[in-house]
Specification:
- Strands 2, 4, 5, 6, 9, 10 and 11 form a 7-stranded mixed β-sheet that branches.
- The protein is globular, with a radius of gyration of 13 Å.
- With 118 residues, it is mostly beta strands.
Amino acid sequence: QVQLVESGGGLVQPGVSLRLSCAASGFTFSNFWMYWVRQAPGKGLEWVSIITSGGDRTFFAESVKGRFTISRDNAKNTLYLQMNSLKFEDTAVYFCVKSLPDFAMDYWGKGTLVTVSS
């Protein structure tokens, strides 16, 4: 069955960097676009970034553009989110999400919590 397991979250100070990872299994990872989606405390879901199946194109929400980078290693079935210059407002649970061809989100990981606090 499809499994998505995020890791790398934690408590960090503003301005620092953090890299999240998502280990995928149960499907042909290299065939699918992948999302990062986040949910801040008490707020709704926010799309953060998406990457094409081959990793050649990436897209970002305006709130993270220029600070976050999404990448993938299809040989390792792993998705990454490099987060630089973290801000208080980046505090959220970050989810790795598999995309369907029509960009619907069909499988979600359990998430990893990132807390940005001084």
